[in-house]
């Protein structure tokens, strides 16, 4: 059985996720923990649950999703996985982090590149990787068929979509990717986004004002 724990970190109110199964092996997605108390909150949960963290994964590499990369790599001795197209996005964070008040940001290099033909495996769990660019050039999401869970980053939100006005973003690319990739998932798929509450594919197909049947934009 797959278990999910979410945290909301940093002033961007970013969602960090820990996925783990009954073997107690786990993966961490998008660690936004910057402050010491945020880092400790993540560590406390992992230690309380006696989890064995196997890897660190970024859905994409905007600042709010990578603030805790270096800490997680060091604390748990794990490798960082990103899509190759987002490597320049990750490298750029050091240049602008102080402008956002993160003068103590610590850069972490990726160890492996992942793409849509790869899988993420831990314990008894296998996650499919879907390539969904538009918000960021190397944005990927992760789908677990048996539990119907999708870790969606900043692609699809409850009633919204990821912004596309940042470097490397493209509005039409994101719309196409959501419709042609994410909307192929079963309607009862639970979408856990990078910000805000969980939603479902079915709800967004019907109601999302950008990509749903009632689209207004």
UniProtKB/TrEMBL annotation:
Q: Which UniProt keywords apply?
A: Hydrolase, Metal-binding, Zinc
- The signal peptide annotation in the UniProt record is none
Q: Which Pfam families match?
A: Lactamase_B (PF00753)
Tagged with keyword Acetylation: no
The protein's matches in InterPro entries, at most eight in alphabetical order, are given as: MBL_Glyoxalase_II, Metallo-B-lactamas, RibonucZ/Hydroxyglut_hydro
Gene3D superfamilies in UniProt: Ribonuclease Z/Hydroxyacylglutathione hydrolase-like
Q: State its cofactor.
A: Zn(2+)
- Domain Metallo-beta-lactamase, by residue range, is 13-195
Name the chain's protein: MBL fold metallo-hydrolase
UniProt organism field:
Fontibacter flavus
């Amino acid at each position: 059985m797959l278990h999910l724990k979410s945290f909301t970190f940093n002033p961007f109110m970013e969602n960090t996720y820990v996925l783990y199964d009954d073997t107690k092996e786990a993966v961490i997605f998008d660690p936004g923990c910057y402050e010491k108390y945020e880092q400790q909150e993540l560590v406390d949960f992992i230690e309380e649950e006696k989890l064995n963290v196997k890897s660190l994964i970024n859905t994409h590499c905007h600042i709010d999703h990578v603030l805790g990369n270096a800490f997680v790599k060091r604390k748990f001795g794990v490798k960082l996985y990103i899509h190759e197209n987002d490597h320049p996005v990750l490298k750029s964070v050091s240049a602008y982090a102080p402008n956002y008040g993160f003068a103590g940001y610590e850069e972490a290099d990726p160890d492996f590149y992942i793409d849509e033909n790869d899988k993420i495996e831990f314990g008894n769990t296998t996650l499919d990787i879907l390539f969904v660019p538009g918000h960021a050039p190397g944005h990927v999401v992760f789908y677990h068929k048996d539990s119907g869970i999708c870790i969606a980053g900043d692609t699809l939100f409850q009633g919204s979509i990821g912004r596309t006005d940042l470097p490397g973003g493209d509005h039409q690319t994101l719309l196409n990717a959501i419709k042609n990739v994410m909307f192929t998932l079963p309607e009862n798929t639970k979408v856990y986004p990078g910000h805000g509450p969980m939603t479902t594919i079915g709800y967004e197909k019907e109601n999302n004002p950008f990509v749903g049947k009632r689209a207004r934009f």
